[in-house]
Amino acid sequence: MAVAGKRIVFFTTLVLLWQGIVLLGIWPESMIPSPLSVANEIYAGFKDMTLIWDIVASFRHLLIGFAFSLIIGTLLGVMLAKVKALDETLGSMILALQSVPSIVWVPLAIIWFGFGEASIIFVVIIGGTFVMTMNMRIGIKNVPPLYLNAARTMGSKGLDLFLKVVVPAAIPHAVTGVKLSWAFSWRALMAAELLSSGPGLGYTLAYASDFNNMSLVIGIIIIIGTIGAIVDQVIFQRIENNVLKRWGLDERNP
Amino acid sequence: MYLKINNVSKTFHNEKDQALTVFQDIDLDINEGEFVSLLGPSGCGKSTLLSIIAGLAQPSSGSIFLENAEVKGPGPDKSMVFQEAALFPWLTVSENIRFPLRKSLNKKDQQDVAADYLQMVHLSNFANHYPHELSGGMQQRVSIARALAMDAKLLLMDEPFGALDEQTRTVLQDELEKIWLSAKKTIIFVTHSIRESIKLADRIIIMGARPGTIISDIKVDLPRPRLQKDMADLEEELLTILKGEIQKVMKEELRYGGSR
């Protein structure tokens, strides 16, 4: 609870500081809007449901794309870990693709799929897949030989060895992959929606920016950050901690 | 002969393709129900030999027969206890013991067998715990229970108590001795501890190093449980045999270190 207290103090100070800067009047409100007008915009957006629909639309894009990312990423990762020739060829390409920022795919997606949801989902899939692939690959490659040897002396081999030993042993890496894949997908989603024809949080952000509504721009940035942090901390961090603890890998609090 | 090790050699090749012979022409016959200890300095290849018996590694030449059938790979007829407990962290203690039983027994029997062996190693209260919640000694007891529950023809133990503290080791040695006396398994036990060998084994095979060979095959006829004072003479004798080997290894390591 001490942490919660510290955070309340921190964010209150931050907002007061922000308000103070606005009151100094160095920059016009169209560049730095006051915290109150940002809060008003968020409130209005929720009240007339536009922001709710944006969030729902964004989550729909995200969940569809994220699900594909996990499935494709897992399959690719298993294949890279198991087939050496693939790892040496396709693996190096995926490593390169992983370092390409998702926004780079947006122009291509628009040409291929138009301005609609398919483009957004495509970019989200590209954004989330490769990090999942690389984590899954490492998870499967790094299964301790001791587990494999022990399982073999207990008569486990082939598919049974893979499903009952290799896959569970790879779970900690897979969970990290899922968490990172979520973070990458979320970023890719915003990049793709900025150039889409809506609805979606990114679209509304671009729209607000076109109309010089800086209060709404900042409001949406806050919403994006808040959702991202909540999902990461409340869902994925918790799952990851539980897995690490169960797998005996949590060295900080044994 | 129950287990026949026939002219087995093992050679490794390093990156420069130089051959390193770990051991040569090992011939060994082991009877059913015997508790045999493989004793030797580090680097003599005793763990490698055990892996080959388990089927986890292939010999460079020679062959191994278990009940007249050649050992071609690992399998549930040869259970193994490793230096580390090798339990699966995602399974509970009881599930770990049931792992090798999945194919051969139904659910009910699996549970009964697991419960029996957990009781044997005094861990009945920990059946539903996860391995990380247990101490190192408890984990190793679970892995011994798991190996015993398989009811294999051969129980292979690779320095199973090497990573434990002195007190835990003594307790587990006593437990293993009791279990062996009641179950009469054929056990091959790798160790570098002279005292552990004498305390547990019927027969001690001493391996020398560079390349590894069997230099002594000693029967231990002391009454069980073995007392420190009865063991002293034999301990002295084995130490004399091993001293020469240890010096040989050290000399070679020094020479190797100096040449780099």
UniProtKB/TrEMBL annotation, chain A:
CDD domains in UniProt: TM_PBP2
Subcellular localization, as worded in the UniProt entry: Cell membrane
Protein's UniProt keywords contain Cell membrane: yes
Keyword list, A-Z: Cell membrane, Membrane, Transmembrane, Transmembrane helix, Transport
Keyword Disulfide bond: no
Transmembrane feature ranges: 7-27, 59-81, 93-114, 120-140, 161-184, 214-236
Domain of life of the native organism: Bacteria
Gene3D superfamilies to which the protein is assigned, alphabetical: MetI-like
UniProt-listed InterPro entries: MetI-like (IPR000515), MetI-like_sf (IPR035906)
Domain annotation ABC transmembrane type-1: ranges: 55-235
Membrane topology designation: Multi-pass membrane protein
Family (UniProt): Belongs to the binding-protein-dependent transport system permease family.
Name this protein carries in UniProt: NitT/TauT family transport system permease protein
